[in-house]
Amino acid sequence: MLQTLRECLIMGANPTDLMGPLTTIGHTSTETGLRVSEIEMPMFGLGVYLMKEPGECKSAVVHAIKSGYRLIDTAMAYGNEHEVGDAIRECGVDREELFIVTKLRRPHATGYDEVIQRCKESLENMRLDQMDLYLVHAPPEDIEARASVWEGMEKCLENGWTRAIGVSNYGTHHLEAMRSYASILPSVNQIEIHPWLQRTELRAFTESIGATPMAYSPLARGHKVSDPKLGEVSGRIGCTPAQAAIKWCIDVGAVTIPKSSNPGRILENLGSIDVDLSGFGGDFAAMDGDYVSGWDPTVEP
Ligand SMILES: NC(=O)c1ccc[n+]([C@@H]2O[C@H](COP(=O)([O-])OP(=O)(O)OC[C@H]3O[C@@H](n4cnc5c(N)ncnc54)[C@H](OP(=O)(O)O)[C@@H]3O)[C@@H](O)[C@H]2O)c1
Predict the structure, then answer these.
(1) What is the mean pLDDT of residues 175-204?
(2) For residue range 198-252, what is the model confidence (pLDDT) as tens digits?
(3) Residues 6+ apart with CB under 8 A from 277
(4) Residue 242: CB within 6 Å of ligand 1?
(5) With 60 as the cut, is the pLDDT of residue 1 above it?
(6) Do the beta carbons of residue 218 and residue 193 sit within 8 Å?
(7) Distances in Å between the alpha carbon of 145 and those of 61, 171, 180?
(8) What is the sign of the dihedral through the CA atoms of 120, 121, 124 and 128?
(9) 78 tagged catalytic
(10) Predicted pLDDT at 18
(11) Which of 100, 165, 168, 262 would be a feasible disulfide site paired with 190, CB 3.0-4.6 Å?
């Protein structure tokens, strides 16, 4: 298990070692096909969906950051951006060391002006000058609005309100359509990915447009932590079931953000970074079963 920040500091190790593997994300110009900007992003972080009790999100985020997490994934829809902001100020780690992701709510994804307003609102909620990654939470329901929503996202990037922009829950056809209206393609596509919903084709298509897949619900919302096959494989690997599922996501090249409000499980999940799955590829391949644990806008028109 990875050491906590405190243990690490006592032992003299560099706290930045605790953030785990990094990946480079960036935007590709639709006109030239070239990368126009790149930034580094941790491959592992904390998701804060369904942390609704007052103070729950703040205390989970503070504990996670003090333990070594550097990436936090929230959304305006989760109603806890303000607690993420409070945690950032209380955690004792410099803002520059953290990577903060939030999302444009689907009902707000109606056009350029709304995106500008909502991005500013998210920054105000977190009391930040800049976020690291701003995502369109799901393909806007009005197909005609998708181009102007993305134009608003590009403006947020240009204004320096975010260091990168991306999408979430975009299927292959949604991404393909972006080539006709985007100036720059998304840096990230955040979708449900885990051993039971491996999405090999959508991950490959996401990468083909220069975007990085980001795996949400790596534990299938907790539905699959007691899967007997996972239990058997993790026993042979020598880690916990949750650690095996989380590390599988990282090993397929997807940034991942397991949610936990429980201090022990927050540490357990961080320990996934050190798990070695070499030689177990066949066991994980056999788990794929198109299991969608939540919603699936990737298949919508
Ligand atoms: N873009 C989107 O549309 C979208 C959709 C869904 C999720 N997300 C993002 O992805 C994040 C993660 O997804 P998720 O919250 O849906 O589900 P998840 O991370 O797959 O699973 C969370 C559930 O698993 C439990 N859990 C966590 N660690 C565990 C462990 N080590 N052992 C056993 N149980 C464990 C949690 O309970 P405890 O809290 O009690 O530990 C919680 O009930 C979200 O928080 C959110 O940031 C994005």
Answers:
(1) 98
(2) 999 999 999 999 999 999 999 999 999 999 999 999 999 999 999 999 999 999 9
(3) 237, 244, 247, 248, 251, 284
(4) yes
(5) no
(6) yes
(7) 34, 17, 14
(8) negative
(9) yes
(10) 59
(11) 168
Q: What is the pLDDT of residue 79?
A: 97
The whole-chain average pLDDT of the chain stands at: 94
- Which residues lie across from 73 on neighbouring strands? 47, 101
Assessment of whether the complete model's pTM goes beyond 0.90:
yes
- The two three-digit tokens of residue 72, written as one number: 């936090």
Which residue carries 């949750």 as its tokens? 242
Listed in order, strand segments (DSSP E) in 54-164 are 71-73, 99-104, 133-136
Q: Residue 90 has what DSSP assignment?
A: H
Residue 256: enclosing H or E segment and its boundaries? strand 255-256
> Which entry of 78, 134, 170, 216 is annotated as an active-site residue?
78
Residue 20 has pLDDT above 90, yes or no: no
Estimate the crossing angle of helix 172-181 against helix 200-208, to 10 degrees.
10
Q: Are strands 22-28 and 35-42 parallel, antiparallel or unpaired?
A: antiparallel
Fold assignment, 5-287: TIM Barrel (3.20.20)
Q: In what order do the strands lie in the sheet with 255-256?
A: 46-47, 71-73, 99-104, 133-136, 165-168, 188-192, 212-216, 255-256
Q: Is the CB–ligand 1 distance for residue 219 below 6 Å?
A: yes
Amino acid at site 31? E
pLDDT digits (tens, 9 = 90+) for 63-89: 999 999 999 999 999 999 999 999 999
> What pLDDT does 17 receive?
52
Q: Is 223 in the pocket of ligand 1 (CB under 6 A)?
A: no
Rounded distance, CA 172 to CA 177, Å?
9
- 8 Å CB contact between 77 and 52: no
Q: How far is the CA of 265 from the centre of ligand 1 (A)?
A: 11
Strand pairing partners for 253? none
